[in-house]
Design a protein that fits this description.
The complex is a heterodimer of chains A (112) and B (115). With 112 residues, chain A is mainly β. Chain A has no helices and 11 strands. Helices cover 0% and strands 58% of the residues of chain A. Chain A is globular, with a radius of gyration of 13 Å. The termini of chain A are far apart. Chain B is built from no helices and 11 strands. Chain B starts with a strand and ends with a strand. The chains are: A mainly beta (112), B mainly beta (115).
């Protein structure tokens, strides 16, 4: 079952602009993670936020988590053409033996 | 760095063939996973293994089986390939433990076409 649903499905911005992607999920979680996938490649882990955290930063990435609304957002600041990729949220739901459930992803295109 | 290696990047097979997809990781991880990825559906878990010779069904195990004879290797088997198994297959691994250790490391993927 797909727990995480990303919004928007696709996003096109210009270099230097900020990109915001949202993720909604359905059940209680231990943590939520964001992954990036370059075209035709495997996924790479970006950042993990625990259920008791509200915000986390890593370089140009900022992740927020609102467990009351069961939602998270990923903000990429000052985007670059190299940020062009698909971004997936993944939830580590409680009681699932630490399996991750991935969403359908947001496809980000950053143009020069 | 963790390295997860999938044996083939691209594979073309005929309907009814038995297909083996191999995955090897070099970080002594206990847990390994097989996903398939289809447009609009995201990643769906086929099978996972939390130890040698152990396996658990994921969300879409039908038509697939797996083998984990050695800790570093996790094989996905399509007993009789069908056209609806044309997809991108991704292998992942992670160490034992939950919470912050529950980060998965992915291979580059195998794009399988069944004709």
């Amino acid at each position: 079952s797909q727990q995480g649903e990303e919004d928007p499905q696709a996003l096109s911005i210009q270099e230097g602009e900020n990109a915001t992607m949202n993720c909604s999920y359905k059940t209680s979680i231990n943590n939520l993670q964001w992954y990036r996938q370059n075209s035709g490649r495997g996924l790479v882990h970006l950042i993990l936020i625990r259920s008791n955290e509200r915000e986390k930063h890593s370089g140009r990435l900022r992740v927020t988590l609102d467990t009351s609304k069961k939602s998270s957002s990923l903000l990429i600041t000052a985007s670059r053409a190299a940020d062009t990729a698909s971004y997936f949220c993944a939830t580590d739901a409680t009681g699932t033996a630490s399996k991750l459930t991935f969403g359908t992803g947001t496809r980000l295109q950053v143009t020069l | 760095d963790v390295k997860v290696t999938q044996s083939s990047r691209y594979l073309v097979k005929r309907t009814g063939e038995k297909v083996f997809l191999e995955c090897v990781q070099d970080m002594d991880h206990e847990n390994m996973f097989w996903y398939r990825q289809d447009p609009g559906l995201g990643l769906r878990l086929i099978y996972f293994s939390y130890d040698v010779k152990m396996k658990e069904k994921g969300d879409i195990p039908e038509g697939y089986s797996v083998s984990r004879e050695k800790k570093e290797r996790f094989s996905l088997i399509l007993e009789s390939a069908s056209t609806n198994q044309t997809s991108m297959y991704l292998c992942a691994s992670r160490p034992r433990g939950g919470g912050a250790k529950n980060i998965q490391y992915f291979g580059a993927g195998t794009r399988l076409s069944v004709l």
